[in-house]
Amino acid sequence: MPMKILIKNIKGLAGAYEESPLFIRGNSMENLPMIENAYLAIENGVIADYGKMDDLSGITDWRNLEIIDADGRFVLPSWVDSHTHLVFAGTRELEFEDRIKGMSYEDIAKRGGGILNSAAKLAYMSEDELFERARPRIEKVINDGTGAIEIKSGYGLSTDAELKMLRVIKRLQKEYPIRIKSTFLGAHALPKEYAGRKSDYVELIIKEMIPQVAAENLADYVDVFCEDGYFDLKDTLAIVDAGLDHGMKSKIHVNQFNALGAIPALVERGVVSVDHLEVLGEGDVEALASSNSIATALPLCSLFLSIPYTPAVDLMSQDAVVALATDFNPGSAPSSNMTLAVSLACIKMKMTPNQAINAATINGAAAMEISETHGSIAPGKVANVIITEKCEHLSYLPYSFGSPAIDGVILNGEIIRVFE
Ligand code: NIG
Ligand code: FE
Question: How many angstroms is it from 84 CA to the middle of ligand 1?
């Protein structure tokens, strides 16, 4: 019998709509619908009904029904983490120590560490081993209340190793109930063998890697690290265009350390998202304000590298669509904790809890082009929800930073964990 779940006595049901928008722009992000003293009914993996406890009439068949008494807890849509590098071979805590002692992320990259360190670790690892290492990470992601995730390649930097990473992502998609989108990031760094021959590597990406990725249907998106010392605007646009030629849109790492003026050109090409944006230049915010490309902030990376935080308040006040993601990766953000990212967005970026929750749910879903099914609570949408600890206000969730106040997680209508 398919499981039916009724969550009753919900203190506040957040992010519920009869028909939800696909994303929320600018200052409207302050609006997070909230139904007090609510119930939520789930059936066959999707949201069946919701409403006020007083109107609990949607349930007609009480057989095979699992009842959760939320008893003063809030319910909200699960997090959508639209930017991660969850598949990697090994951790990089020695670089963390070097940074504590004074080296910068750039210094470490220049001596062959950073992304190239991760690529060296991954080069000879078997696909099976890489998959086994990714398993506990995705299991933790699910347990922590993330209901959909994007995962990038980018630690391969050769055709074989990039395809190996993407196959691991494909296996995760098959094995786990969480919605996963996959992004090809061959242009993450210039491999050592191509030193001084960047254009040859870009050509390899365009002529060999992207066609193979597309032929095997291994990625939904293409990504580039558009940054000084990595790939410039011309390289980036050529790769974005090659992706488009093969039916893949882009999500681009841009403006992390330097404003290269790439955002207007990327937005013009209809990229799904531009991610990082710690440093913005002239014309960048305006370009985002008049487009549907999502501006994705990654506060865990800002914290971990001690770099500026994305100016989300400016972006919102000028009408951009802002999302939040973890950037989970072994170098610049070794944490997959979306709840902490939401807390940091409030504490350091001055987003309100409502804005940050919208950024981490519905707008994150838009940054993965899955907001028709994920990121909000509406009849027929995938039943991915978080149940908070007992609390007076939903803002308790970002407030209790560092120890997520989450008592229950439901994914595709299945209970992952719930309080006793
Ligand atoms: O998003 N900035 C580029 N890529 C990753 C970091 C990758 C790494 O250091 O391994 C990021 O921060
Ligand atoms: Fe990243």
Answer: 9
Range of the domain at 35: 4-78+376-417
Please tell me whether residues 29 and 107 are part of one structural domain.
no
Mean pLDDT by 10 residues, the chain (420 residues): 87 96 98 98 96 82 88 97 98 97 94 95 97 98 98 98 98 98 98 97 98 98 97 98 98 97 97 98 96 98 98 98 98 98 98 98 98 98 98 98 97 96
Quick one: which ligand is closest to 229's CA? 1
Which residue owns the Cα nearest ligand 1 atom 9? 331
> Are 88 and 73 part of one and the same domain?
no
Report the CATH number that the domain containing residue 270 is assigned in CATH: 3.20.20.140
Beta bridge partners of residue 321, listed in sequence order: 294
Residues 237 and 247 reside in one and the same domain: yes
Looking at the structure of the chain, the number of domains it has is 2
Task: Tell me the CATH number at 412.
Answer: 2.30.40.10
Give the nearest ligand 1 atom to 331 CA.
9
**Secondary structure, 3-state, 223-289:** EEEECCCCECHHHHHHHHHHHHHCCCEEEEEECCCCCCCCHHHHHHCCCCEEEECCCCCCCHHHHHH
Asked if residue 87 and residue 21 are part of one domain, the reply reads no
Contacts of 278 by beta carbon, 8 Å cutoff, 6+ apart: 255, 256, 257, 302, 307, 308, 309, 310
Residues 352, 381, single domain; the answer is: no
- Nearest listed ligand to the Cα of residue 273: 2
* Residue in the block written with tokens 């990039």: 162
Give the ligand 1 atom nearest the CA of 276.
Answer: 1
Number of neighbours of residue 348 by Cβ within 10 angstroms:
15
Integer Cα distance of 132 and 202 in angstroms: 31
Q: Which residue, of 347, 366, 385, is where some domain finishes? A: 366
> Are 266 and 327 part of one and the same domain?
yes
Q: Which ligand is nearest to the CA of 251?
A: 2
Mutate to test the pocket of ligand 1, among 275, 326, 327 (most ligand atoms within 8 A of CB): 327
Residues 120 and 243 both lie in one domain: yes
Å from CA of 68 to ligand 2 middle: 37
Query: Could you tell me the distance, in angstroms and rounded to a whole number, from the CA of residue 235 to the centre of ligand 2?
Result: 18
Distances (CA, A) of 160 to 90, 112, 155, 170, 361: 19, 21, 11, 15, 34
- Between the CA of 78 and the centroid of ligand 2 the distance, in Å, is 21
